[in-house]
Amino acid sequence: MTRIPHETSGEPNPLQVLTLDRLRQRTSMKWRTYPEDVLPLWVAEMDVPLAGPVVRAVTDALHLGDTGYPAGTAYAEALAAFAGKRWGWSGLAVERTAIVPDVMLGVVEMIKLVTGPGDTVVVNPPVYPPFYMFLEHMDRRVAEAPLGADGRLDLGVLEETFRQAVAGGRRAAHLLCSPHNPTGTVHSAEELSAVAGLAERYGVRVVADEIHAPLVVGGAGFVPYLSVPGAERGLSLMSASKGWNLPGLKAALAIAGPGAAADLERMPEEVGHGPSHVAVIAHTAALRDGVTWLDSLLAGLDGNRRLLADLLAEHLPAIRYQPGDATYLAWLDCRALDLGDDPAEVFLERGRVALSSGLPFGTGGTGHVRLNLGTSREVLTEGVRRMAAAAAPH
Questions:
Q1: The pLDDT value given to residue 7
Q2: pTM
Q3: C-alpha span between 334 and 157 (Å, rounded)
Q4: Among 26, 78, 146, 172, which is least packed by CB within 10 angstroms?
Q5: 3-class secondary-structure state, position 86
Q6: Segments in the chain below pLDDT 50
Q7: Do the beta carbons of residue 145 and residue 195 sit within 8 Å?
Q8: Helix residue spans in the chain (DSSP H)
C-alpha cells in the first residue's frame, strides 16, 4: 500500500482554541463526573471545537429538519475514499459494510455472528476496559493474551491462547484493538499478517476495533487488518468518532473481508436502526471534508506527546512513559512512585486531577494510569504539576 503523508494544514491547532472556562460549560461525562476543582484528563473526549465541515453539515441538516432515519451508503463511500488516500487501501468494499450504532455495539454484533454463548474471545491486555464488560455481558469467556514487555503483540502467547480457546471444537474469536488502546501501539503489517495466519490455522475469527485508525501521530503507518494477506475472513469496525471527537454523535461502520461477507449479511436488520441519521451526516462530513482539521490536530497531538515526555522527565522522572504512535492517550507506568495498585486514586485525592485507573485494563494495568493528551499545552502542564504534588512525600 502506498500512503499519502499527512499534509501541513493552515488551520490553527484545535487543542489550543478553547479556554478552560469555556470547556467547563460542557455537560458531557468528562466535565460532569467530578467536581469543578478536579482537572479531568481521563475519559476519551478531546478539548477541541468541532471541525468546520462537521458543524456546517449538522447545522444544514437541522435547518432542513433532516432528522429522520439513516439511509444510503454515503458514510461507507466517504470512509472508502479516506482509506484509499490516507492508508493506500483500496479494499474497503462499500457493499461489504453495514452501519451500526457505534463501534462497541458493532463489536457485540460481530462477535454474535462468529461465536456463541460460552465461547472464548481473546483479548490483548492491557486493553480498553469495555472489551471485558461487553463480552462478559454477552456470556462469552474472556481469555487474555497479554502484550509483551515491549508493548507489542506476543505472537507466541497469542498462538497458545488460540490453541486453548478452540480446544474441544468450540468456536472462538480474537477481539483485536488496532491501534491499541491504551498503549498507542500501531501493529505492523508483519504482525497483523502473523495474526491472520494464526487465526486461519486455529479457526479463530478476528474482529478488529479500528476506531483510533485516523489518529496515527508517530512514524508508523496504520495498516487496516483487512488489508493483510490471510485476513479475508476478518471483520472490522471503524468510525470517525475518535479522530474528530464525535462520541456523542453515534454511528460506525462494520466492514467485512471477502470471506466474511456472508456473516455480515446475517446481521439482523434492526441493528441498522440504532445509528443516528444526524450522526451519519456528521461522520460522513468529517471523513470527506475534515482532513485538513485532522492534520492540524495530529500535529498538536504530536507536540503534546513530546511535551508530556519533557514534563514527566522534569517533574516525575520515576514514571515510565513510552509515547505511542497513535491515539491521544498516554499509558503511564507509576509503579516506582509506590502509590499502590491504583495511582489514579492518589492523583485524584491529593492532586485533584482525574486520570483513568489502569486496573480495569486487565493484566498489566496494576500501578498504571491512562492520561488523555487531547487537551491544551497549558492544561497538560497543570495536570502534570498536580500529579507531581500528589506524588510528593506527605
A1: 47
A2: 0.96
A3: 25
A4: 26
A5: helix
A6: 1-8
A7: no
A8: 20-23, 29-32, 52-64, 74-87, 103-114, 130-137, 155-165, 189-202, 261-265, 277-289, 291-315, 343-351, 377-391
Number of other CB atoms surrounding residue 325 within 10 Å:
20
Three-state secondary structure string covering 227-254: HCCCCCCCEEEECCCCCCCCCCCCCEEE
Residue 240 near residue 287 (C-beta atoms within 8 A): yes
C-alpha cell at 389: 504534588
Strand partners, 320: 333
Distances from the Cα of 309 to the Cαs of 28, 151, 227, 264, 368, in angstroms? 28, 17, 33, 43, 16
CA dihedral 384, 385, 391, 392 (to 10 degrees): 150
Provide the pLDDT for residue 394.
Answer: 74
Cis peptide before 360 (omega within 30 of 0): no
C-alpha closest to that of 175 among 242, 117, 103: 103
**Which three cell numbers, joined as nine digits, stand for 6?**
499527512
Report in angstroms the alpha-carbon separations of 236 from 146, 224, 372.
21, 9, 25
Q: What is the pLDDT of residue 9?
A: 53
pLDDT confidence of residue 220:
86
